Amino acid sequence: MTRIKPQNVKPLSDYFLEIEFSNGEKRKFDCHPYLNGDWFSELLDLEKFYSVRVSGNTIEWAGGQDICPDCLYDNSL
To answer: pTM for the complete prediction?
Structure first.
């Protein structure tokens, strides 16, 4: 079975991401549950949040924060 992975990511307002996956689907991912704690709370700075990009099989921010590709797909609408 081929893993579904992000092909493109676009930051949206209110800490949501629009992600286009390798199966052609576009989905919205809510980052709010991840913004607690020292590591991900840096993304509350919108400049850092908007630095998101596709990296390998997942997405990544400039500070090195990333989210499992399965989690991105399974928890997006």
So the answer is: 0.93
